[in-house]
Amino acid sequence: MKNTLLFFLLLVTFSCNQSESNGEMSNQISTVKKETIEMHDVVMADMGKLRSLRDSLLSLSVRNDSIESVQLRKIIFNLDSADKAMWDWMHNYNVNFKSETDSATLVYFHRKYLDIQQIKQLFENSISSGQNYLSTSIDGHAQ
Fold first, then answer.
1. Computed from CA positions of residues 4, 92, 78, 117, in that sequence, does the dihedral angle turn out positive or negative?
2. Mind listing the pLDDT tens digit for each residue in 66-91?
3. Are 6 and 80 in contact (CB under 8 A)?
4. How open is the CA angle 113-37-28, to the nearest 5 degrees?
5. Ramachandran region of residue 140, left (φ > 0), alpha (ψ -120 to 50) or beta?
6. What is the pTM of this model?
């Protein structure tokens, strides 16, 4: 991840040194903003699934007081963490962000893209774990 950001910063610096026009830089900013919002929309589409799965698992945890409940609580915690990460990202994302330089603006939006990409992975992993746990449970107890 740090390598990706470093590579991107070097690319931006190199691009700026090549006397890239303002129009081209504006196009890059627009493209990254668009891709960021598209990634956000993909994650938002899973928000209902995440919450529904969390509710289902919570009902199991109330009935389950065994060793498996430790694993179940961890899965629920991960679902909650993914949900919180998404809300934090949305509250901190500024679609109208503008820095003193176009390259700094581009870096901001690229960073937000990488952040939402991580959140997407968090969603996918926590939903998958929750679904796997739920599918292996019988009468509220994991096998």
1. negative
2. 666 788 999 999 999 999 999 999 99
3. no
4. 65
5. left
6. 0.78
* Helix ranges (DSSP H) in 1-143: 2-17, 22-45, 47-63, 68-92, 102-136
Query: How far is 24 from 29, CA to CA, in rounded Å?
Result: 9
Q: What local confidence, expressed as pLDDT, does residue 1 receive?
A: 60
- Per-residue three-class SS string for 103-123: HHHHHHHHHHHHHHHHHHHHH
pLDDT beneath 50: ranges in the chain: 6, 10, 18-19, 142-143
CB 126 within 8 A of CB 75: yes
The H or E element spanning position 142 is: strand 141-142
Residue of 55, 31, 38, 54 lying closest to 123 (CA atoms): 54
